[in-house]
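User: Hey, my collaborator sent me this sequence without any context and asked if I could get a structure. I don't really work with proteins. Can you help?
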Amino acid sequence: MSETLLSIRNLRKYFAQRSGLLRQHKQYLHALDGVSFDIARGETLGLVGESGCGKSTLGKALLRLYEPDAGEIVFDGRDIRTLSRADMRALRQRMQMVFQDPYDSLNSRHTVGAIIEEPLIVHRIGNDAQRREQVRELLQRVGLPDNSIERYPHEFSGGQRQRIGIARAIALRPDFIVCDEPLSALDVSVQAQIINLLLELRASMNLSLLFISHDLSVVRHLSDRVAVMYLGEIVELAPAATIYSEARHPYTQYLIASIPKPEPGARASMPLLHGEIPSPLHPPSGCRFHTRCPRAEDICKAEKPEFRLIASDTRHLAACHFAEK
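Assistant: No problem. I've predicted the 3D structure and written it out in C-alpha cell form, which is a compact way to encode the shape of the chain:
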C-alpha cells in the first residue's frame, strides 16, 4: 500500500455571517462540515462538486490559508494545525498552490523572473546568480522561453500565465500541490497542454496533487481517485474508474449523467436534477441531499448517513443509506 502523505480527519470550517438592520444577528455558514480523506505520496485526488459546495475552501484550509475550526491535517506525520507560524512557514516549502485565475494570482507590477524567484528569496535558497539560473530552468521546464524572465504577466496569454503560476509552485520542489480549478479560465486546447504539463511534473517530481475542478471529464483523465463533495461534505470517494462506472451515491450519479455526450442527439442517461442547493447557513437535517434526491425516504430526512466503506476491494466509500443497493 502506498505511503500516506496527507491525512485529513473531521475537518470543519465555518464562516460567521451577520444580518439584520444593525447586523446584530450572527449565523454560521457551514463551508466544511466533517471532511475526512487521505492522499498517498505521488497520488492525484480529484475533487468535484457544484459551485459553492466548499471545494476551494477545502484546498485553502489544507494549507492553512484559511484556519480550520476543528479537525486534523496530518502532513507527513505532523499535525500542521499545531505548528507555530515559523514552523508552518518552513513547511510551506513542501506544500504549494496553483490558483484558479492565472492573472489575479500574479503580481502585475513584477516581472516573471521576480515572481518565480520570490519563494526562493523568502526561503533563502541560493545566491542571486543561482536563483536566476534556477528561474531560467523552471521557465524551460514549464515550456516558456528564456526571454520571459524580463517580461510582465500582462504580456502573456492565459495559458502562459498559468504556466508561470505552475513554475512558481514547483520552485521549492514541493511534495504536495493544491490545484484550485487551474483550467477553468483557459480555452479547451490550452487546457490539454496544461494537463499534460501537470502529468509530466507529477511523474518526474513524484508530486501529490489535490485537483479541484467542476469538469468531470478532466478529473477522470488526471486523477487516481475522485472525491465528490456536496454542501460541505464528502459524499463519495473511490478510484476514478470505479466512480465513473459504479457510482453509488445519487448525487454522484447525476453529476456523471450530466457529462456532455459526444454523439449528436444523445439523450442523458438520467432525468435532470431539480431544485436548488440548500443554503449552507441552514443545511438540511439527515442526508443533505435528500431535498433534491428523487429516491429519498423518511430515514434520509431523519438520520445522517455514515461515510463508510462499501467495497473493500476498490476502497469505495459513500455516505448514503442505500449505497449497497
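In plain terms: The mean pLDDT is 91. You can pass these C-alpha cells on to your collaborator as they are.
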